[in-house]
Amino acid sequence: MTFTIREPKQTETETEERRRLYMELENCIGCRSCLAACTQCGGHEQKNRNYVYDVNPLVNRETMPLMCLHCVDPACARSCPAQAIQIHETGAVLSALVEKCIGCQNCTIACPYGIPKFDEEENLMYKCDLCIDRTKDNIPPMCASVCPTNTLQWLTESEIEVKQSKNDVGNDKWVTSMPYLEGETNVTVNLPGILQGTVKLF
């Protein structure tokens, strides 16, 4: 399958502003285009590193993409005794380095979201690296490039702030789909009006 990549129109000012992946989960229709696109990201070796989760398949058709949130202080990296998990200058938390990973799987246990996966054949941990070959040049990751409903968006900090202000519930908190977020992340997740009583914790 071939994808047409939608490159954002960028002004000179925008190219200097940091961009992050923003997720509006209420838009997800479960098409799984993001999964197919993930396999075509450079360095992924045709392997999908993201997931689409059926929230409650017995009751409704709600789905949500699940991917690495690229924590600012990632538990996976802290738990690695071989220092195989590196953090790129853009904030992306990368997959384990082949030459350093010892296959201990500490990272798979430490991650509160169950993101890192262990490849037994290669004896190596792999996970979403935010398409670092693209995002380091401010090009959107493959998943955001093909999402037909804008569930996944590659936005500037100021654009994210505008979206957050629309869903503000007071006290500098805003509605999110993940009330269990532990610490600051480089991926922003928003699900307005569906899960009442959940707030952004960081």
UniProtKB/TrEMBL annotation:
Pfam families: Fer4_11. Residues 19-49, 55-90, 92-121 form the 4Fe-4S ferredoxin-type domain. The keyword Iron applies. InterPro entries: 4Fe4S_Fe-S-bd (IPR017896), 4Fe4S_Fe_S_CS (IPR017900), ET_IronSulfur_Cluster-Binding (IPR050954). Keywords: 4Fe-4S, Iron, Iron-sulfur, Metal-binding. Transmembrane segments: none annotated. It comes from the Bacteria. GO terms for molecular function: 4 iron, 4 sulfur cluster binding; metal ion binding. SUPFAM superfamilies: 4Fe-4S ferredoxins. The keyword RNA-binding does not apply. PANTHER family: PROTEIN NRFC, PROTEIN NRFC HOMOLOG. This is Electron transfer flavoprotein. It comes from Aquibacillus salsiterrae.
